[in-house]
Design brief:
Chain A: Its main location: cytoplasm. Chain A: Keywords: Cytoplasm, Nucleus, Proteasome. Chain A: This is Proteasome subunit alpha type. The structure holds 2 protein chains of 2 kinds. In chain A, the strands form 2 sheets. Chain A has a 5-stranded antiparallel β-sheet. In chain A, strands 3-4-5-6-7 form a 5-stranded antiparallel β-sheet. The two termini of chain A are 34 Å apart. Chain A is globular, with a radius of gyration of 20 Å. Chain A is of the alpha+beta class. Chain A is built from 7 helices and 10 strands. Chain B is an alpha+beta fold. Helices cover 30% and strands 32% of the residues of chain B. Chain B is built from 4 helices and 12 strands. In chain B, the strands form 3 sheets. Chain B has a 5-stranded antiparallel β-sheet with strand order 10-1-2-11-12, covered by helices on one side. A 5-stranded antiparallel β-sheet of chain B has the order 5-6-7-8-9, covered by helices on one side. In chain B, strands 3-4 form a two-stranded antiparallel sheet. In chain B, strand 7 and strand 8 form a beta hairpin. In chain B, helix 1 packs across helix 2 and helix 3 packs antiparallel against helix 4. The chains are: A alpha+beta, B alpha+beta. At the A-B interface, helix 2 of A face helix 1 of B.
Chain lengths: 269, 221
């Protein structure tokens, strides 16, 4: 995307019918560290990569509990995400106060989308620079939504946002057909695998990611680090076995491997 | 009073009692809801769990009691989101006082007792008037049977005067089961003479292991 004369105001259309400021806001989401979500029939798992600006600092909080039955993971401008989480929490509390029942997630995401849309149609505002993966339960079951700065929202079986999310999306696309039948543990495992894809080489440890889950009979909560570390250990055992099997195969395919373009460099194979 | 066209309150009767111990707190209230000389229901709880270690009992106008409980629960939820922990009993006590005074010129017609464990795990009881004046005490009772019960508690629990120096612990040396028995006794006595108290007694005990609930039948006349 290049600068042009129609991108100064959010209230200016381009001749092609685009609002560039809104699209630029969606770029901000792509710059944030990765967040993924995936759901089965009864549970939804959210996982994020903990990126710290330096070794001295702590990482930013990217998963927020909104209510017992709803949680969000964000990517992009975390400050915008924090403010929107406060709005979501307030809406849930107000609904519970008046109706003494949990706010259905489908209503919440519409309210959030409408709030985002307002910022795309006021000259004195700017769009929110954060994408939200909203996970929640209601009477109709488990749901995962993605709300973007444009004011659009979509429901997903699984999704990934933020930097290097394409790798996670590819992984999830291969496997999502079976997600509905997954148990809670299988869902967490696949969530961690998806996060692993976004790390591209970096070692997956429980310190580098945050995982949260919500499900039938299980209020939204962030899974503690030790439990995640144990799941990661079990993944490594499975993975090593798979890598050995793959190594045995690729030993007979050396010539074709050398022709691969892009990273990694040929010396790394 | 109800003859005035603009009288918006109602007294639904009932009595609440709370006693603080060294590591527990007993909060009890009867379950009768009445208006005038009629009983609306024999099974209405006046006690609300606000936090892990904090329980509110209110007598007076139950419409306002329900609204006050919901108000405090919502505020507690916001606190939990912001602080990542439950509210302590002293914090809730101040919040309740501020919430009541907020409506100083159209008060919640509720006479509240807040019971629970303080930050050190000792029992605490806070007693309120309708507009938020509160005090931490070793025991308290509110409601239509309050005047009948208070002198008995004074006699049995011998709470030291808060004016004494050095300040004495207000919590009773009684054990948890002794305090529960005392509560049952005073309610049985109050039920005899107070027409608005009776039917069933709900007892909540807050201690380090959590919150326990007990019921006792009272006279239904």
């Amino acid at each position: 995307m290049f600068r042009n004369q129609y991108d100064t105001d959010v209230t200016t259309w381009s001749p092609a019918g685009r609002l560039f400021q809104v699209e630029y806001a969606m770029e901000a989401v792509k710059q944030g560290s990765a967040a993924i979500g995936l759901r089965s029939a009864t549970h939804i798992v959210l996982a994020t990569v903990n990126k710290a600006t330096s070794e001295l600092s702590s990482h930013q909080k990217k998963i927020f509990k909104v209510d017992d039955h709803i949680g969000v993971a964000i990517a992009g401008l975390t400050a915008d995400g924090r403010v929107l989480s406060r709005y979501l929490r307030n809406e849930c509390i107000n609904h519970s106060f008046v109706y003494e029942s949990p706010l259905p997630i489908s209503r919440l995401v519409v309210q959030l989308a409408d709030k985002a849309q307002v910022c795309t149609q006021r000259s004195w505002k700017r769009p929110y620079g954060v994408g939200l993966l909203v996970a929640g339960l209601d009477e109709t079951g488990a749901h995962l939504y993605y709300n973007c700065p444009s004011g659009n929202y979509f429901e997903y079986q699984a999704f990934a946002i933020g930097s290097r999310s394409q790798a996670a999306k590819t992984y999830l696309e291969r496997r999502f057909d079976n997600f509905n039948k997954y148990s809670r543990e299988e869902l967490i495992k696949d969530g961690l695998f998806a996060i692993k894809e976004t790390l591209q080489g970096e070692k997956l440890t429980s310190a580098i990611c945050t995982v949260a889950i919500v499900g039938v009979g299980e209020p939204f909560h962030i899974i503690n680090q030790q439990a995640i570390e144990q799941v990661i250990q079990s993944l490594d055992i499975v993975e090593d076995a798979q890598v050995e099997a793959a190594a045995a195969e690729s030993a007979s395919e050396e010539p074709s491997a050398a022709q691969e373009p892009a990273a990694p460099a040929p010396m790394d194979l | 009073m109800a003859l005035r066209g603009d009288w918006v309150y109602e007294n639904n009767g009932g009595t609440c009692v709370a006693i603080a111990g060294s590591d527990y707190c007993v909060v009890a209230a009867d379950t009768r809801l009445s208006v005038g000389y009629s009983i609306y229901t024999r099974d209405y709880s006046k006690i609300c769990k606000l936090a892990d270690k904090c329980v509110l009992a209110s007598s007076g106008f139950q419409g306002d009691m329900k609204a006050l409980q919901k108000n405090l629960s919502a505020k507690h939820l916001i606190y939990q989101h912001q602080h990542n922990k439950q509210m302590s009993c002293p914090a809730m006590a101040r919040l309740l006082s501020n919430t009541l005074y907020y409506k100083r010129f159209f008060p919640y017609y509720t006479f509240n007792i807040l019971g629970g464990l303080d930050n050190e795990g000792k029992g605490c009881v806070y007693s309120y008037d309708a507009v938020g004046s509160y005090e931490r005490v070793g025991y308290s009772c509110q409601g239509t049977g309050g005047a009948l019960i208070m002198p008995v508690l004074d006699n049995q629990l011998k709470s030291p005067s808060p004016l004494l120096l050095p300040s004495r612990d207000a919590v009773t040396p009684l054990s948890e089961s002794e305090a529960v028995d005392l509560v049952k006794d005073v309610f049985a006595s109050a039920t005899e003479r107070d027409i608005y108290t009776g039917d069933k007694l709900e007892i909540i005990v807050v201690n380090a292991t959590g919150i326990r609930q007990e019921f006792l039948d009272l006279r239904k006349d």
